[in-house]
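Q: I'm writing up a methods section and want to include an example of the input and output format. Could you take the sequence below and give the corresponding predicted structure tokens, formatted cleanly so I can copy it straight into the document?
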Amino acid sequence: MTTEGEDRAARSEPSHSAATAALLAGSAALGGFLFGYDTSVINGTVDALKAQFSLNSVVIGFVVSSALLGCAVGAWFAGPLADRFGRIRVMQVAALLFVVSSLGSALAFNAWDLTFWRLVGGLAVGAASVIAPAYIAEIAPAELRGRLGSLQQLAIVLGIFAALVVNYVIARVSDGGAGGEFPWGGSAWRWMFASAVVPAVVYGVVSTTIPESPRYLVKKREIARARQVLAKVMGRGGDVDLKIGEIVKSLKTERRVRLSDLRGDTFGLKKIVWVGILLSVFQQFVGINVIFYYSSTLWQSVGFSEGDAMVTSVITSVTNVVTTLLAIALVDKIGRKKLLLAGAAGMTITLTVMTVCFATAAVVDGKPQLGDVAGPVALVAANLYVFSFGATWGPVVWVMLGEMFNNWIRTSALAVAAAAQWIANWVITVSFPGLSSLGLGIAYGLYAVFAALAFVFVLKEVPETKGRELEDMDKLDPSSATA
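A: Here is the clean output for your methods example:
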């Protein structure tokens, strides 16, 4: 028999271990905060940059999207580098690149100089987009992995929200908005870019305080260190030695993982890798980042002032934060697949409404003019669209990318999927100015079609990963097992 004190200790241990796992996951997710902040901070600078450097719509589209090309490269190499040097080391390199990019962007003297520094920042964002979900999945208990994995998306949307708020405050205190003079000297848009230095430094410092992934440590034969980390996140009720054995079994081979290990019989890749790639592509092809990268300019084009447009963008971002909290509460209860299906259906409907509103709007001086009815309807539809995305596809795709691949190929497969995501993001972002010049109804109609296709894809091809241990992911696709 156990004593009352022992019973209390046993009951408290899981809570303590869950808190430890949550703390580690939250620390890693700071990379997601920078991911959101860095990719969104340019939102409030677009019109100022056009005026400062005399840019046309094509060039400004390339400048805005340039970071995304760096993101694809950063994501592609982050996986192999994380397998060689560790998850923590890659986090620290990403933090340094964030700092350098922020300062360089703030001091840019022309559009091409700014493009280079945005590319550098993209390398950091791409790396963070791979490392955070991989690390969180590898330290989280199976029953908490959905919620902890969703912290990555929560951090991203908080980063987007913070960037929009900082942009709004800087524009308000400056003489002339984003293109005006900041009270401390220099153009306001330069301070918007420079503000990213603060969270970048915090991320770098925090990354020095968290332990390495236990799966990586086992792969490097540092069993004692792996056991210590697992003991903290599994608690007294977990069998650490059994888990070590399962991890060792899932890492059968001695050699270093290569991208060639992702090859399979489905169009040259393992089927599960294709599922990850297409989840990533559909997450972007529904057009979500158009709302965040161009939202201020978008709402100005339909009659809002610069200040009101920024406020509208902040409201949209708040909607995204709230819905992500909802996803965190539901992802381990409802499951990943059901949430993805619900989100795709919701986005299809709301994007269709936005398509109708903009396609039927009168065009004055080349800009759509929404009426007294269509304007509020479009704004409500846009926020319901963000709700549909934020509660489902935003967090759930990152959760699945972190957990759906087996221990052997995880970071490499995640790198490929994340690189595909950033390329898709770039395609959507750089194409939007051209599509919108033909008509916003055409742009939103295209995104609605992709949302409908995403629903069909999830229904037919995406497996449920809720409750599975990472060591059991081979069962989702036997061809992905370690050779």
